[in-house]
Amino acid sequence: MADSTRPVVELSILGLQPRDGRPDDGSGFSSPTWTWPDDDAERPLARLLSRRYLAPSAHDEGEADCRFEDPDRQALGILEADPPAEIDALTRALGDWCLGGGSRESFHERIEAWKAEGFTQLLCFDPIHLKAETDHAITLGPRFLALTAEELDGLIGEMNAWLAQDGMRVERIGRQLYLLARAGEGGVGPANVDLKRAGAPLACLLNRNAGVFLDEHHSDPILRQWLTEVQMWLYPQPFNDERAGRGQPILNSFWPHGMAELTYPLHDEATEAGLIVSDSPAVLARHDALAFEDASPRSLREAIEAGRSLHVVLSEAAWCRLEGDLGGFQRELARIDDWLAGLLESVPGLNVRLLDGQGGVWRRENYLARLWQRLWTGWRRRA
């Protein structure tokens, strides 16, 4: 039983599986287990994963909605009783602004500057690679493309010269791209006043048939027409020739989604006395939270010693899992583990409660139970 006098940290890592999860899905193809590698058994995160995993209770959620697979929405679901069904571009942009060290006040100034130029709408504009299959195309995302900031900046300059005639502009906030548009008669694509919605959230498309989300039920015809024009513009770009020459995948499309009006303010959600740490733009936009990159063990120790509870909500591993990026997933866990080791060294006796963000939790067991679990897991892997 946990010592109630010890300070407690709730660590929610979205996309994480228990270490004894089944590595094969029965399809005849190997399926990776999204967890910590076996050769780091003494690391802090591995010790947490060696505890007993209690899965969430099964319940009927009705018809599946891919929007609920969005890691940013899942992160909000940990902190809010009724999170929005879809995260809009303005919320994501504010979060990315804060992740980059900007303040809410300076983001407000940026919105006013955009409005002064006549822009009225903002969309997420994610770079993607459409991988051609026999009769459809699979959507591969930003982690597959691995575009550098220099590549993005060079492309943005060329693209904005082309977009200007249609009243649009691409801007980069951190590593994310956003599309600014003016609502006006005779515009093209998202600049057109008749466009009522953009595409589904990117999480819906990753590693799936893109065509499913371009039908009349998921997008407007004018969006499909405009994306075709974007793809035709991208195809002959020297930027893509250079990537192909280096054996890298080409950027052959973008995915616009989360269309929002340029309005302000965006209010913080009410938070309790505890401290929230997150890498999710949506969490930083809607809560008084600290960016994970800025959460040094020393600053957290001061908060814990002051009696504040600590809840860490991390989403990058879930994005890697959606994209099928096992290497990125394991690098992210290594980053979390290094951070956790520093925190445990800074705050001796800290009690860390590991959760998967979906109702599952790893619970401490007594010595004999842990020994039996390890023996059973080892036997299963050899069988």
Structural overview:
Mean pLDDT is 84; it is low at 24-30. This protein has two domains: 8-20 and 32-54 and 65-80 and 270-382, no CATH class; 90-261, no CATH class. A seven-stranded mixed β-sheet has the order 2-12-11-1-10-8-9. Strands 3, 4, 5, 6 and 7 form a five-stranded antiparallel β-sheet that branches. It is of the alpha/beta class. The protein starts with 7 loop residues before the first strand and ends with a helix. It is globular and about 65 Å long. It contains 14 helices and twelve strands. It is 38% helix and 17% strand.
- SSE string: EHEHHHEEHHEEHHHEEHEHEHHEEH
Helix percentage: 25-40%
Instruction: Give the overall form.
Output: globular
Q: How many domains?
A: 2
Q: Radius of gyration in whole Å, from Cα?
A: 22 Å
Identify low-pLDDT runs.
Answer: 24-30
Given helix and strand content, the structural type is alpha/beta
Which percent range describes the beta-strand content? 15-25%
In total, how many beta strands?
A: 12
| Spatial separation of the terminal alpha carbons | 33 Å
- Strand order, sheet with most strands: 2-12-11-1-10-8-9
Tally of separate helices: 14
Mean pLDDT: 84
Report the biggest beta sheet as strand number plus sense, adding barrel if it closes. Answer: 7 strands, mixed
Question: Keywords for this structure?
Answer:
single chain, 383 residues, alpha/beta, 2 domains, seven-stranded mixed beta sheet, five-stranded antiparallel beta sheet
Question: How are the SSEs ordered, and which strands pair?
Answer:
Blueprint (H helix, E strand, L loop, with lengths): L7 E6 L30 H6 L2 E3 L16 H9 L9 H11 L4 H13 L4 E12 L4 E4 L1 H4 L3 H15 L4 E6 L2 E6 L20 H4 L15 H14 L3 H8 L7 E9 L13 E4 L2 H6 L2 E3 L5 H9 L4 E5 L1 H8 L2 H21 L4 E5 L5 E3 L3 H16 L1
Helix pairs in contact: 11-13, 12-13
